[in-house]
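FIELD: query
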Amino acid sequence: MIINKNTLSLFSLVLVLLSPSAFSLQTSHYKQLGPLFKHVASKTNYTEQELHTLFKEVEIKPQIIETMERPAESTMTWTQYRKIFLTEKNIRRGAEFWQANAEALSRAEKEYGVSPEIIVATLGVETRYGSNTGNYRVIDALSTLALEYPRRSKYFTAELKNFLILTDEHKLDPLAVTGSYAGAIGLPQFMPSSYRHYAVDFSNDGYSDLVNSVDDAIGSIASYYSRHGWKPGQPVSWLATGVNSSADRLLVKKRKTDRPLNDLLAKGFTLQEQVDANSRVGLIKLKGDEHPEYRVAFDNFFVITRYNTSKLYATAVQLLGEEIKTRVQATK
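FIELD: result
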């Protein structure tokens, strides 16, 4: 069990250490629920009393806090991480998914400019193409993190509000919606705020359904990337060689490009492909088991990090997508 005591309240620390199983939420213990209920009631058809009644059915799950303290992206090397996602099975299933949904993927590319391999690989990394969407009740996950995870309480409180508004907008049973331990929903694992702002009705049935509709998931991922600045036809990242340890001072500090490619080429970097030397890039470093891997990341790479902030995640999506595309092309 890995616990960072600096990020947990005394009460939540006790919960994790002494309460391995879930227990019912007591609304009287959490004064912040009053303002939350009032806000949600002002935006929805829920009344404050209905929300009080609803939350009597909510459970606090201490194991979620423990899981939040040890995400894979912060504990694994790139070598370990890529072995999870860049597998023969994941590549094969990705190619099959592409072939089965070619029309929707082609339509998404035309409408949003996002490459099919990036959409498919995102689904592959997130939920293995919809086969693993999570089995936590979303209301439990978000309530646990909003109320018992101080470090990110503000964020998860906002997501809990968005979730309740979402269930009202889509006429969903808030106790029946399941997802990840962090409260992400459906095939593409959208957080409730992203669901409300970026999900699209790509199947044209009058309803954006990220749980059951593959078309809606495909269109919504493309919508998300497009709205965050995806540049059609532009690269994601390329492996850099001719790099030594002094390159660490050039590493990008924020999740956006910070220099022209010329700056790196002038220092002896070489890339696997050629591109306009004035292109904006950012240098990233991935920790290997023995040696680091340096990659030159373009704007599209940092668009993927808007989906998940991890450099490992964005690189896995890119490389899985490339392998899937190669597999699909080989079958034509």
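FIELD: remark
The first helix runs from residue 10 to 18.
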